[in-house]
Amino acid sequence: MLIKALKKALPILVCFGLFIAIPMNSQATTKVMWGKTELKLGQIGKVTILADTPLVKMESNGTLSTVRMLKKGDEYRVYSYKGQHNGLYGVGGSSFVQKNTAKVKYETPSKRKLALVTPKPIITTPVDPPALEVIDIQ
Asked: What digits encode the pLDDT tens for the residues 26-45?
């Protein structure tokens, strides 16, 4: 009888333990939209595709190979920039969009938008310890 009760209670206890062990974020994160894309931490800008343009990868010998074509009107987050090959915008996953003002528009986020995704430092106010009262016992 006790074993049957333990078999039924064990999954509930395990779920409860996992629920307690998973840290809960007290600050709800809100999405900060910038055009068609969500602004992410670490993002330095975005590219808007003005005309179909290739998404490229840099090979080990320094040449570029086309991964696929990006369509006009699409927007992509930019996380890095390389000066090679007349400029490459790093869009993640070791993929790049070549700098070309006729086909690609690059923008940086405003300071106001950046402030919305930058983590705020947690400032704690120091608390003085309670004063000790000395009582003379005789």
From this structure: 444 678 898 888 999 889 99
CB 81 within 8 A of CB 44: yes
| Distance from C-alpha of 89 to C-alpha of 56, rounded to nearest angstrom | 10
Taking the alpha carbons at both ends of the chain, their separation in whole angstroms is: 62
Q: Please, are residues 41 and 117 in contact by the beta-carbon 8 Å criterion?
A: yes
Beta-ladder partners of 82? 88
Per-residue tokens: 113: 């938008």
Which pTM was predicted? 0.65
Distances (CA, A) of 88 to 5, 64, 81: 63, 10, 6
**SS3 annotation, the chain:** CHHHHHHHHHHHHHHHHHHHHCCCCCCCCCCCEECCEECCCCCCEEEEECCCEEEEEECCCCCEEEEEEECCCCEEEECEEECHHHCEEEEECCEEEECCCCCEEEECCCHHHHHHHCCCCCCCCCCCCCCCCCCCCC
Burial class of residue 67 (count of CB atoms within 10 Å of its CB; 0-12, 13-18, 19+)? middle
